Amino acid sequence: MNRAIPQASATRALSEPSFATHNAAGNGDVVLLCEHASNHIPAHYRGLGLSLEHQQRHIAWDMGALAVAMALSGMLDAPLVHATYSRLLLDLNRPIDADDSIVVHSEDTAIPGNRSLEPSELELRASTIYHPFHNAVTALIDARMANGKASAVLSIHSFTPSYHGVARPWHVGVLAEHDRRLADDLLRTFGADPALCVGNNQPYAPINGVYHSMNRHGQQRGLACAMIELRNDLIAHPITQRAWAERLCAALTPALARLHSGRPQHAMHR
After folding, report:
1. Architecture of domain 10-259 in CATH?
2. 94 near 100, Cβ under 8 Å?
3. Is the CB of residue 105 less than 8 Å from the CB of residue 48?
4. d(CA 124, CA 225)
5. What is the C-alpha to C-alpha distance for residues 134 and 92, in angstroms, rounded to an integer?
6. Do 256 and 186 touch, CB atoms closer than 8 A?
7. How many CB atoms lie within 10 A of CB 156?
8. Among 5-14, 21-30, 133-142, 251-260, whose mean pLDDT is lowest?
9. Would the CA dihedral through 189, 181, 26, 63 be positive or negative?
10. Is the pLDDT score of 7 beyond 60?
């Protein structure tokens, strides 16, 4: 007989903040986000009915992404806002009303603890996870703009080497929608390295609904923005995490300088 997976209530509200800000006073020209940084699921959710093995998988978080983002934050002196709960509780990189904001099935795995959620539970997760994270990002960018600080917005993610049995050859993907100023610069740099297989809106694209944070905090504010996707087997260890942070820093430093130099930039593509 299957045990029921408990839903939270107002008396069991999530007690820990849904985000953390690292290097908030960083003076670099970019704000970093890592929306899928954690696989933490509070104990009273009983893992949403998943085994510990499943809770460690990519369905629960973007493995290696936070370590890369933290290292990059130090190299660029950039503020970083990152998640502290698993994407399985609520995906911060989806509109709050999207069907995949809280998934009942992820890749090849059912998520029992997300089935038939009560309205009170949906509201709890929105009010304690989604809104605090995005309000914090908005406040950070507002403060920087009030101080005349140029800001681009960059989100760091990771992806699996294969999906439903189909191999993914890319080492790094750069995602962008209408505003491609930063993305196109990064693609030119990465594309010049013959050792890299580079994805332009691969393995995901904004059309797949994965560009919510960049649209909200970048495009809609007229700020250059892009998403970085790193294949997670390439950032599985501290040495390779640091190496990819250094590679990203080497590409981003001149790209941000060009972006904020006052020289004419490419117009937004629509």
Report:
1. 3-Layer(aba) Sandwich (3.40)
2. yes
3. no
4. 30
5. 8
6. no
7. 30
8. 5-14
9. negative
10. no
Q: What is the pTM for the complete model shown? A: 0.92
Q: What is the DSSP string of the chain?
A: -PPPPPPP-GGG---S-SEEEESTT--SSEEEEETT-B----GGGGGGG--HHHHTSTTT--TTHHHHHHHHHHHHT--EEEE-SBTTT--TTS-TTSTTSS-SEETTEE-GGGTT--HHHHHHHIIIIIHHHHHHHHHHHHHHHHTT---EEEEEEEE-SEETTEE---SEEEE-SS--HHHHHHHHHHHT-TT--EEES-S--GGGT--HHHHHHTGGGT--EEEEEEEGGGGSSHHHHHHHHHHHHHHHHHHHHHHTSSS--PPPP-
Q: What is the pLDDT of residue 12?
A: 54
Residues in the chain: 270
Do the beta carbons of residue 118 and residue 7 sit within 8 Å?
A: yes
Show the tokens assigned to 225.
Answer: 């923005």
Rounded Cα gap, residues 118 and 114, in angstroms: 10
Tell me the Cα Rg of the chain: 18
Rounded to 10 deg, the angle between the 238-259 and 65-76 helix axes is 50
